[in-house]
Every structure is written in structure tokens, then in C-alpha cells.
Amino acid sequence: MKQRALQLISIEVEKIERLIQVQKNSLNNPVCPVYEEVLDTQIFGLSRIVDFAIDLELLSAEQGKEILTELEKRLLEQIHSVIK
């Protein structure tokens, strides 16, 4: 069950990373309020999924924090590469 939870969370992380890649590849404007709102909503949703998995003891709090921290780090790197 724990492995399946990690797989599902990984799929959500990949979806969010693809959103950034789509903007990077197809939009001329690296800063788009609508796009940022969609991304914020997706990240919020992921954080709720992670919290739920922690509550069910499918993930430890440390694992959940690491997943979200790593995603935020990668997204910031990708966003900065778009802005440059």
C-alpha cells in the first residue's frame, strides 16, 4: 500500500513538472498569472494528497516534506531557466 501511494504521488509530481515544461516550450511570456494560478492549485492539491498519505501512515512526515521540497526546488530551477 505504501509503494502504491508513492507511485500515485510520483505521477502527480510528474504532471506538475510537465505543466512547467509546457509553459517553457510553448509560451513566449515566462510569467503568466493564469498559468501561475493553475500551478499553485496543482501544488496545493499535491500537498493535500501528501498530507492524506501521512495521515494514513503511508508516508512519514519526513518523506512528505522531502517530496514537496524537492518538487519546489525543481520547479524554481525550471522557472528561473524560463525567465533567463
Q: Would you write up a description of this structure?
A:
This protein is mostly helical. The chain has three helices and no strands. It has helices spanning 2-26, 33-55, 61-83. The longest helix has 25 residues, at 2-26. The protein is elongated and about 40 Å long. The termini are far apart.
How far apart the termini lie comes to 42 Å
Helix content: over 70%
**Residue fraction in strands:** under 5%
Which spans of ≥5 residues are poorly predicted at pLDDT below 50? Answer: none
Strand tally, please?
A: 0
Based on Cα principal axes, name the global outline: elongated
Reading the helices and strands in chain order gives HHH
Mean pLDDT score = 85
Number of helices: 3
Rg over alpha carbons: 14 Å
What class, by secondary structure content?
mainly alpha
- What does the main sheet amount to? none
Brief account:
The chain has helices spanning 2-26, 33-55, 61-83. The protein is mainly alpha-helical.
Question: How is this fold's topology laid out?
Answer:
Blueprint: H1 2-26, H2 33-55, H3 61-83
Helix pairs in contact: 1-2, 1-3, 2-3
Observed structural traits:
single chain; 3 helices; 84 residues; mainly alpha
